[in-house]
Write a structure and sequence with these properties.
It contains 23 helices and 16 strands. It is of the alpha/beta class.
Amino acid sequence: MSVRRDLVLAGPMGSGKTTVGSLLAALLERAFVDLDARIEILEQRSIPALFAAGEPVFRAAEERAARLWLARPADAWPEVLAVGGGTLENAALAEALGRRAAIVHLDAPAGELAARLAEPEVAARPLLSSAADRVARLDALRRERAAGYARADLRVETAGSGPREVAVRVLRALHADDAGPWAARAQELAPGLPTARGVTIGRGALPFPPVLRAALVWDAHLPACHRDALRAPLSAHAPGGLAWIEIPGGEPCKTPATLARLWDALLQAGLDKDMPLWAAGGGTITDLAGLAAATFKRGVPLALLPTTLLAQLDAALGGKNGINLAGAKNAAGTVRLPERVHLDPLFLLTLPPAELAAGMAEAVKSALIGDAGLLDAIEDGAAREAGWPLPRLEEVTARAARVKLEIVDRDLEERDERRKLNLGHTLGHALETATRARPVPLTHGEAVAVGTVFALELADRAGVLLDRPLLDRVPALFHALGLPASLPALDAAEKDALKGALGHDKKRAGGELPWILPVRAGEVVVAPVPAATVEALLAEELR
């Protein structure tokens, strides 16, 4: 990252500097400083009172406060500073701020700025409160201050976007691969592991090798702040032409019919055997794209940009892909490693809480399988009332993904150890099948959470579980994450479907269904469990 680790937000009234700045500070685990509030504390006078003494009096006070902020030690923990609309007109001050911080200019049309400003806010803004036409006044101020705003490193448009989306736009601009002041090279996630070659992590980076032409399949539900940021760099990576194929993500897309439509789209795009298929989306999109890439013209190169936590920790790693058949999850597919997978944590910042929680179920699974300390990190993040800050998300993502990659490297074909990655999935997949007819079926993360707790209880009954406090600790963590920890109420048809799905589980061999059973945090075993034991526990849970 650049030495300019501090962040300054500038822009006209109503552009969102305070709201977005506070949100960015929370995401980056930094303090937020509002320069106007700091001025009032230092001067012991309100902003209107300073302006009443003349704008030069206010500007002198503004510079004193800004210079005091700049005088912090060079190695001080970085902060987010929101400055006034005219601060950057002071060329010397703007230059000093630019040496210390990355400066972002937030902007929007005057009409939208005026609409955002409530009456109490307008009364506290001397340059606007007396204006007969506030829109015209805001527009005039924007034009007058254009030279000052031009001193910012970046301009981010805020029109039509909520505060969180604007915050993500700011982070994407700061970390942009080509010109962002905080741009950094992507890092290998698990160096030294052959099957993890090409798997990288990094904010905003796009480490796909340039090609002449390519096709991109991406999720139609991807938020605009990500879509807008991806268009130019992805197009630049394929200067000869990039075919854009949009498919709505979700389990309904994992069908033979959708796969056939994707094949047709690739054929219409003229994708040759040496031209890559890129995919940007959640696990269903990466699963579908992986199978399409493995089978179209008997195999084309594949690169994945997973956009959900679940995809970054599971679906996009390890080479598995597939579609569902008659409700059976991933009944048809292949195992074929992609050439590139890049985990960008910025995608995770716009996930709905339920979808983020679904990914955290996979992270808990990884902690139980191979990283006891990761369980502590997830508990720490779940306890934060303000939500998950970006550094914590990065840590959980990297550690959980690394657990999977290490196991896959030892057992690519799932002949032995890779089966451990199915912890919680045996019952979880059956629950997804059993509840799929509901108006709101169980999500994959909810089902895996229930399945993981079931596996813990099964391990206890089988005499395998040594760390018995996990029986309380893991359900409590799932509850803190907003996930269920026990079987939901099922009607008769759903109970039959659950038992039928367990009977048709693709991992069955020789008439037996192996179970992944926790021993302690960071250690599991694969072992058969007597059918009577499973049925007895299931019957208790269903009651």
